[in-house]
Design a protein that fits this description.
Layout lengths: L1 E2 L11 E3 L3 E3 L2 H11 L5 E2 H8 L5 H16 L2
Antiparallel strand pairs: 1-4, 2-3
């Protein structure tokens, strides 16, 4: 699977909103956004590889899923 950040990073609010508003963990999200902010296509495999010393795969998959949901609904 490959991903691309289409939305400018500064427009991504670090909150998840539903019936409650929850602050997103910037320690998890920022390293992934650092990789994606060039607006180029990145494979999930490459993102996992780049961050393997800091995060497990499930954390990365979760962040990517949350970002996908946030960006779709902006």
């Amino acid at each position: 699977m490959r991903v691309l950040l289409h939305t400018p990073r500064k427009q991504i609010e670090m909150k998840a909103s539903s019936h409650l508003s929850v602050d997103l963990n910037v320690d998890l999200f920022n390293p992934i956004l650092d990789i994606l902010q060039d607006h180029k296509i990145h494979s999930v495999k490459d993102i996992v590889e780049a961050l393997k010393d800091h995060f497990n795969e499930m954390d990365i998959f979760t962040v990517l899923a949350i970002l996908a949901g946030k960006i779709i609904w902006l």
